[in-house]
Please model this.
Amino acid sequence: MRSKSGMTVFAWIMLAAIVFGLGGYGVTNFSGGVTTVGKVGGEEITSQDYYRALQTELQAYRSQYGQDQTVQQAMQAGVGAQVQQRLVITAALDDTAAKLGLSAGNAALRKAIAGMKAFQGPDGKFDDATYGSVLRSNGLTKSEFEKKTRKQLARDILQQAFAGTVPAPATYVDTLAAYVAERRGFSLLKITPADLKTPVPAPTDAELKAYYEAHKKDFTAPEAKMLTYVALTPEMMAKTINIPEKTLRDAYDKNKASYVTTESRQLDRLVYPTEAEAKAAKAALDAGTKTFDQLVADRGLKPSDISMGAVTEDQLFAAAGKAVFAAADKSVVGPVQSSLGPALFRIDGITPGKTTTFAEAKAKIATSLQQQQAGTAISSDVEKISDKLAGGATLEDLAKETAMQLGHMAFTSGDTSGLAAYPAFRAAAEKVKDGDYPSLIQLKDGGIAALRLDSIRKAALIPFAKVTDKVKAAWTDEATAKALTARAAEIVKAVKGGADLASFGKVEANQPILRNGNVEGAPDALVPDLFDLKAPGDLTSLQAGSSAWVVRLDKIVPADPKDADVKRLKEQLSASAAQGIEGDGFNMFATAMIAKTPVKLDQSAIAAVNAQFH
Model:
């Protein structure tokens, strides 16, 4: 979406951050002897700009994919090529702006720099000392930075030529809005194994063996690394730590406020312009001539407009809080003064306040303190245990000489059970090779572990006798699914022939739902299948798990162009479409611009900069 300043999502091309890396202080400079990595038209791409841009992009890549990602992995993923492409586009824009004579005056330059938050002092205003300090920490001089900023402002002028020039076609927006905002009412009949005419029979031995032969992959043990490990986690060690009663009591008293939950109430607040109108509404409510929901509708409001959610007494005006919290559940209080004016409050539910006693909190406090002390104890032993490993101690030695516990496991790729639930342990297990010497692994909860690869168990088919129960369960699930699917199809056929859907079981009528809605307890495919139906009365069926469903379309509710939500949707669709058109136009311009601008990249210079990151 276009922002207030007119910039679009394509502003990354325009170097909205002015200089790559300026958003984070302390960006270092390229220390090699290469000064440029390329030239586009008359504009040079400096090694410093490429270095800063690559450094920032590598940081972003690691933030997204993990800090353990290497530079080589990032480069293979195309990070370097993306940075180069972005710098080429920027240089081409600068070259084009220069040829067109586009430039920003001193007043525009001052305004742009003064508005940058990075250069503001404690009072929120531009501070020249901060300005100089930030630039120095990023290896820039004022003249260099101001030259870059002036170029960016010229690029912005080019960008603005594409901003909002072509509005989104009304037909396109209306069609999309009609599609997205259409709702459908429907009826559901759920079918379970109990609804089958004939229960699924028990399988014969021959059927089980045939299923086993046809699904060998499902009964094959995957390749696994047979590991020996030692581990010590706060949870393991905590069981050996005794916390004195006085320490537990002191911890409770210190944090007593956290064990007190204040009473809250689910409230609806209906505000009126004047107290007279609020009193008239309450009188109609008391007389029974209006319901609260009717009063809401009379004000032109929806339930979501008046809902306050869960509120405590201190979150309301004093008078309102006192009145509301003295009233009974499901009652209507008022009129009383609220932060928005005279209002009626409907109480939709009460969550009583509660104080957790020391006796109730004692076990949880003990566990927390035990794990804290265990973490400290483990931390103090890390160096000693690490020295033992470095000195040639085996895992078995560590289990005898320290509190670490010895264990064995068959680790398969992607395993997340036991110690493999720790990412660091899992990563070490994935990487370990035959002959690797154990090293200490730091776990995220403060625990430690070490592992050794003993052997690799090849993938192998598990003998039928050992998986008979699993084969039987899988056969039964498949047979049940087939029977449920067939039964649902029978019901659809019967209803199309004139039978009443309700004659086959309990039918649940559902209110109209949007395309992105979901039905609790039903498979995700139900709603898309519902919207594939053509007209009211049409039926479909689907099966998932141990149930099947027959779906009947009852009503199609077209999008109401007068509805406020539909109007907002159209505004969003129109803005999004206009942005897409604007982006396409700019992309065509950029493509044509680069096509007729000489581009030269010095791959040896680029390699020299890249080498700084290895």
User: Anything to note?
Assistant: The chain has four domains: 9-164+594-611, 183-214+468-557, 224-241+371-458, 263-352. Residues 183-214+468-557 form one domain.
